[in-house]
Amino acid sequence: MQSSESLNKSTEKTVNDYIELIETIARIEYTRLKTSAHLIDYSELVNIGAIAVYIILTNSKYSDFNISYMSTAIKWAIRNELRRRYKWYAFKHQSHKEDSKDIVDGNTEGIDQCQIREAIYGAILSIDDLADAENPVQIKDSSLTPEENLEFGELNKAIKNAIKYLPPRERMVLETRFFKDKKIKEIAEDLKISSSRVSRIIQSGLDKIKENLKKQELL
Questions:
Q1: Which of 15, 18, 73, 197 could form a disulfide with 193 if both were Cys (CB 3.0 to 4.6 A apart)?
Q2: Any residues with CB less than 8 A from the CB of 186 and at least 6 apart, and which?
Q3: Interval 44-67: pLDDT, tens
Q4: For residue 86, what are the contacts with CB-CB under 8 A and spacing of at least 6?
Q5: Domains of the chain by range and CATH?
Q6: CA 125 – CA 128 distance, rounded (Å)
């Protein structure tokens, strides 16, 4: 007859038990990055998710977690890493004029910069979505200092407030893109306009938000 200790060990979950969930979430997050995905590999996202799961499993008295809890933890860990990598990359210095010139000149790197800037805003705005009560504190990004975390929090609030003052169409598109997590193609189909038009609306809105943040000396 098995002892309670050996029985508990036999029923304990490992990272491998969650690998399908990890890969699914990593794939979704990787897809969200679009053309800026060259800044991080899909395999890196899988590793980040796996490490998050390992930390949870080894630092908790519980041996099993529901899928919703684990999904949130994995997503939180991945987006935290994206925030760390993207935090000021092309955010403080990239201007829309530079973006437009590159696109006109046929320089695809300029288009990547637009996507990167969108990814940065999306990552900052995702703070509230992932900071729920079930989020395990063990996997919070230790690479960010308290000052950086505070700065992200201030940016999050400032960006949301700036969105409220955008023209109705820009506000609607940005809220749909960032808060409802709809793809540009889906927004284009809903509005019966081209995807490139949606991208221009998003970039115009982000330009206005950036100017708003500059006035508040947050950039």
A1: 197
A2: none
A3: 899 999 998 888 888 766 656 778
A4: 39, 116, 119, 120, 123
A5: 15-95 (1.10.1740), 146-216 (1.10.10.10)
A6: 7
